[in-house]
Amino acid sequence: MRVLVVEDEPRLLNNLARALREEGYAVDTAADGADGLGKAEEYDYDAIVLDLLLPRLNGLDVLRRLRALKKTPVLILTAVDGTKDRVRGLDLGADDYLAKPFDLPELLSRLRALIRRAAGTARPVLEAQDVRIDTRSRLVTRAGRDVPLTAREYSILEYLVLHRGEVVTRSTLYMHLFDETSDTLSNLIDVHVFGIRKKLGPDIIATRRGHGYCIEP
Ligand code: CA
Asked: How far is the CA of 191 from the centre of ligand 1 (A)?
């Protein structure tokens, strides 16, 4: 999953980006509203964390302009006493909010919920055949047996299961799993899928020649 963090306090921005990468997210960052809006328009993020008090373009304006184009899930960060901002943000189409200062585990939990809901799933445990994916612990089992995947393998599997029934192209996977700091060739996707099949069995992920990958619903 690829997320965008728009936050003008450098320390908070860096800490958030690092924590999210440790959780396996691909993370792009923007330190002002104009840069944030530009990236949000250019890329299809799985979620956006958006501070409201921002230089160049404030968060509510970013949200208003983004919502004219896209449904990307947005979690807004508001000041402690920011009730008015919170209400305006939700009315403008924010999906959730957190008041600063917030606890990191709560932000991570809300972000996971936003991404699941956007994919049409409310439960934190995803299933395909006898494969279970716990998105909280990032643990995968097949028929009750633990299947240890690398971070990239997990991300690919999670994305495909969240979009099961759809053919997901390599470029879509690339867009959602690698961020602006990644320097990786797209053909590595095939190597990771090969790794998943080796550990999980060959029957879960189907290849659609010339199109991409698919997990049957
Ligand atoms: Ca701010």
From this structure: 40
